[in-house]
Predict the structure.
Amino acid sequence: KQEVTQIPAALSVPEGENLVLNCSFTDSAIYNLQWFRQDPGKGLTSLLLIQSSQREQTSGRLNASLDKSSGRSTLYIAASQPGDSATYLCAQASGTYKYIFGTGTRLKVLA
Amino acid sequence: DARVTQTPRHKVTEMGQEVTMRCQPILGHNTVFWYRQTMMQGLELLAYFRNRAPLDDSGMPKDRFSAEMPDATLATLKIQPSEPRDSAVYFCASGLNEQFFGPGTRLTVL
């Protein structure tokens, strides 16, 4: 059974810290991996998409990497801000575009 | 500013009633997904379509749920009859490779 695991489940950091969120997946036949942000009571906002042929993607203070051999992706957030507080989810897609989501990491950045 | 739209945003209904949720995907996106999110189960894929054809609906209880795409601008998710355990937020997403989510329909079945 394909599984996506995110560690830690929750994280609280002071403003300004650099932090890493982890995502592990069991399906080696990965097509792409996407990171999302979800604010309370809201939908999911796409942050970064990494295709299977890529190793990393960057957008502003965010950098996501993909290591297919170890089944891991990391989301690096530089110089965290209180506005970064949200739940971060990763989702793995197989070749059939079927996405499996992790359970998320709840991030709180303290001012 | 292209975005996925969903209606209604909130729905409260009584057990046994029919519920229909609608989604307008982003124009040009050929894949449409329906998800359900609950505190206990997280985000679950119910069904998805590619070029309007259903690819996988194994995540749906088929005795009461049905999903269709009558045309490229409309996807529907229907529950008949609804049950209290169907209470959740239902999201539609569309995309080519990257997924873009709608704001969701919050369903409460009493």
The interface with chain B takes residues 32, 34, 36, 42-46, 49, 51, 89, 91, 96-101, 103-104 of chain A (CB under 8 Å). The mean pLDDT of chain A is 92.
